[in-house]
UniProtKB/TrEMBL annotation:
This is Patatin. The nitrogen atoms of the two glycine residues in the GGXR motif define the oxyanion hole, and stabilize the oxyanion that forms during the nucleophilic attack by the catalytic serine during substrate cleavage. Possesses non-specific lipolytic acyl hydrolase (LAH) activity. Hydrolyzes phospholipids as well as galactolipids. May play a role in disease resistance. One of its GO terms (molecular function) is hydrolase activity. Its EC number is 3.1.1.-. Residues 52-247 form the PNPLA domain. It comes from Ensete ventricosum. It comes from the Eukaryota. Residues 399-423 are annotated as: Disordered. It is an enzyme of class 3 (hydrolase).
Amino acid sequence: MAIVDADRLSYEIFSILESKFLGFDDSKKLVFPASSAASPRAPTGAGRVRILSIDGGDSPSDSLLAAAALTRLESSLCLRSGDPSARIADFFDVAAGSGSGGVLAALLFTKGYDGRPLFSAADALRLLFAESRRRVGGFSARRGLFRGIFRRSGGLFRRIFGEWTLRDTVKPVLIPCYDLATGAPFVFSRADAVEADAYDFRIREVCAATCADAGAAAVELRSVDGRTRVAAVGGGVVLANPAAVAITHVLHNRQEFPFAVGVDDLLLVSLGAGGSAPALGAADLVRIAGEGVSDMVDQAVAMAFGQRRTSNYVRIQANGFASGNCNPRTRRSSSRSMEAAEELLLQRNVESLLFRGKKISEHTNAEKLEWLAGELIQEDERRRKCPIPTVIPKHAMTPRTSSATTITTVTTESTGSSTSPVH
């Protein structure tokens, strides 16, 4: 009975999250299925669906923690697997990222010309540090590591991603923004992109959209066939923590994840944001609101996982940016920035407890990452031994030339028809 009640709670929480944050409104989804026996269960040994969720934030600690944590995790995976070329994307089935987290997800999960991820975590971190120093002279406590760099889809984004689109990722990705045209959150999804060009967007534009400043002009972008238009601002206020987006995507996508029917079938890794400097103005109020929503999602997800919270849900969160590294003069040094990142990994974050509020974690962020690396290696080994796949990749229904080549789109606004010559 206790297990059934926990499953009921999990389903209802995710249904509410889906309804409130993803714009769905289906009252039937709030009713727990009469029996889980009708749903397929993962065969013994098949493994769990591995989800990576990266919060979006404006403060230096937000960007530092996510990049440093992924670098530490990838290094441990290379060591434990004995494969120096191992990448984060090799050990996760889905990646969701908002704001700066969406940029990191794109860097680590976009497919290069050799079919492998474009960047290792360490290379992505070095690139972002170098570009930050070149463009804005180091960190900006008000704008964060990525906001000053990635305001538009041109420049660095264009040099990195070219004409690659959401279809050109090694694994499914989910990157949210807020669409002013519809007045609702919009989630860029590889699963939708492979089914229709109307939902396929260039990755450089997706990154610009999820990082768009709420106080500036919206980022206008269209799908590759020109049929879908989005007027985007960053989804930091309503979707700063994309964990709920990723969970509902997996649990409702039976085509790709046929055996994922509950939290027992998931391994969720959530990289969170840390505390920031005191509020200074309207922009800070927006940031605080976003952090509040992020914490609420964390609490709800922790409750939904229930007794599985310690084995199937890992939250990496900073408690604040080390005061010793907040001096503007020291922020310009990459070595000092790396020291700050290491300090964040040594922190013990605040954890949400089932119906009991919060407490300080017994383990540091670095210790959690080491444990997680072991779990991911075990999951990989389990899948190699099981003949039934845990994940069935979805492929594009209408094949087209790799979007790395130039695609010229001609749209006729009056008729709504479009043609997409492929070169």
